[in-house]
Amino acid sequence: MSAASATQSVESQSHEIRLNAVLQLALINILWGASSVASKAALMAFGPFTLTFVRFAPAGLILLLLARLRRRLPPIAREDLWLFLALGSIGIAATYGIFYFGLQRTTATDASLLFACEPILIALFGYLFLKERLSWLQWTGFLVGITGIWLIAGRALGDWLALAGLACECCVSVPAKRLAMRYPGLLVVAYEMLIGAALMLPLALWEWHHHPHEVSLRPLAALAFLSLVCSVFCYGIWYRLLSRHAISQMGVFILLQPLLGPLYGHFLRGEALRTNTLIGALLVFCGIALTIYRKRSSADSLRG
Question: What is the pTM assigned to this prediction?
Answer without folding.
Answer: 0.81
